[in-house]
Design brief:
Blueprint: E1 3-5, E2 11-13, H1 14-44, E3 69-71, E4 73-89, E5 92-96, E6 101-106, E7 113-114, E8 119-123, H2 126-161, H3 167-199, E9 202-204, E10 209-214, E11 221-222, E12 227-232, E13 237-244, H4 245-248, E14 256-261, E15 266-275, E16 285-291, E17 303-319, E18 324-326, E19 329-335, E20 341-351, E21 356-361, E22 368-370
Antiparallel strand pairs: 1-2, 3-22, 4-13, 4-17, 5-12, 6-8, 6-11, 7-10, 8-9, 10-12, 13-16, 14-15, 14-17, 15-16, 17-21, 18-19, 19-20, 19-22, 20-21
InterPro entries: Beta-barrel_RND_2, RND_pump_MFP
Keywords: Membrane, Transmembrane, Transmembrane helix
Protein name: Efflux transporter, RND family, MFP subunit
Length: 387
């Protein structure tokens, strides 16, 4: 058996030596693994690479050359607030029948333009034709009875003048004439009523407009008062929008405002017709109704925005050709008093007049900026392109 000398001169067996050597090996492996792990973390975090200071530094020789420049100036702009609403017709008509009858024909469909007096619906009128014929036969009988009573009265009158008829006979003959006249008048009224009822079998348009809904089809039974067609007057379209009370109290009937219809990307001039004199408590708003000019492109139910001037404000205005976009960031090159060009990050606002853009931060009034016509001007929806 091999023996090893321990520190201090004592002997150690081979098995004990192996245990000590194994423990030292594990410590060495753990230390090496720790060093490798720390080195990997340092490499991944960039500690072993050269650092680049954040920010942008203009080159020392960035001087203004022959590039065109423009000046940042301050303008006064009217502020506009939007009230979102819906197009509705102030004149809307529900077409229904006055009779209970089978629908024979409906001459229009949704979307059709109709004129006042145009035939829209025809009902089965056989029953009412029969009633009219019966009333006319009754009128003929009443007329015959009247004529017979008048002849009898004339004979009795002649006999009385000759003292050949009593006063009682004369009075009875006179009464019979009055009764037959009344019966004839009643029969004539029955004929008129039957003619009116028959006229109800044909439904015409009470006013001009556009059909927007059809609730029945031929073969259905029309009920009195039950909607069959719906039409509205195109000239009565108006935008109904809830307007915040601090704006609504400044509006008056007759005021002209712009209405933007997003679906058409057009702006229409509207006139305030009505302001409902009661505020909605939860939203603190008044319902404002503004009439729109007649247009073939406008339909009831469309979405619109009522543009209400709410005052003025001053802001900085910048030429759009001065804006350089890098990703989602916008920059301008500002010319310092010594001619050095300094690039600055800006925050822009909405597009103003064509070719000009509101700038919220990054530049000051009176500063000169370099124009970049060839760099691709920042474009906003609705803005004209620059050559």
């Amino acid at each position: 058996m091999r023996r090893f000398i321990q520190p201090g001169g004592k002997l150690m067996s081979g098995q004990a030596f192996k245990k000590v050597f194994s423990g030292l090996s594990k410590l060495i492996v753990a230390g090496v693994a720790m060093v490798v792990l720390l080195g990997t973390i340092a490499w991944l975090s960039g500690m072993l690479e050269e650092k680049v200071e954040p920010g942008w530094k203009a080159p020392a020789d960035a001087k203004l050359g022959d590039q065109p420049t423009d000046t940042v100036h301050e303008v006064e702009k009217q502020t506009i607030e939007e009230a979102i609403g819906t197009l509705k017709a102030s004149s809307r008509t529900i077409v229904s029948a006055k009779l209970m009858a089978t629908i024979d024909e409906i001459t229009v469909v949704a979307g059709d333009q109709v004129e006042k007096g145009q035939t829209l619906i025809r009902l089965d009128d056989k029953e009412y034709q029969s009633r009219l014929a019966q009333a006319k036969r009754g009128l003929e009988a009443a007329t015959a009875n009247r004529e017979q009573a008048e002849k009898h009265f004339n004979r009795v009158k002649l006999l009385q003048q000759q003292n050949a008829a009593s006063r009682s006979d004369f009075d009875n003959a006179s009464r019979d004439v009055q009764v037959t006249i009344a019966e004839e008048a009643r029969a004539m009224q029955a004929v008129r009523e039957a003619e009116v009822m028959l006229s109800y079998a044909t439904v015409t348009a009470a006013k001009s407009g556009r059909i927007v809904d059809r609730s029945a089809e031929p073969g259905d039974i029309a009920q009195p008062g039950q909607p069959i067609l719906t039409l509205y007057d195109e000239t009565s379209l108006r935008l109904e929008a809830p307007v915040m009370e601090h704006l609504a109290v400044k509006l008056r009937a007759g005021d002209e405002l712009d209405v933007k219809v997003d679906a058409l990307n057009r702006v229409f001039r509207a006139t305030v017709d009505e302001i409902v004199p009661q505020a909605d408590a939860p939203s603190r708003s008044f319902l404002v109704k503004a009439s729109l000019p007649k247009s073939e492109d406008l339909y009831e139910g469309m979405f619109g925005r009522l543009l209400i001037p709410s005052g003025t404000r001053r802001h900085l205005c910048l030429n759009t050709e001065a804006v350089v976009r890098i990703g989602q960031l916008e920059f301008v090159d500002v010319v310092l008093p010594d001619g050095v060009v300094e690039r600055r990050l800006i925050q822009s606002g909405s597009l103003g007049m064509p070719g000009r853009k509101e700038v919220l931060s990054g530049v000051d009034v009176g500063e000169r900026v370099v124009l970049h016509p060839e760099a691709g001007t920042v474009k906003t929806e609705g803005a004209p392109d620059h050559e």
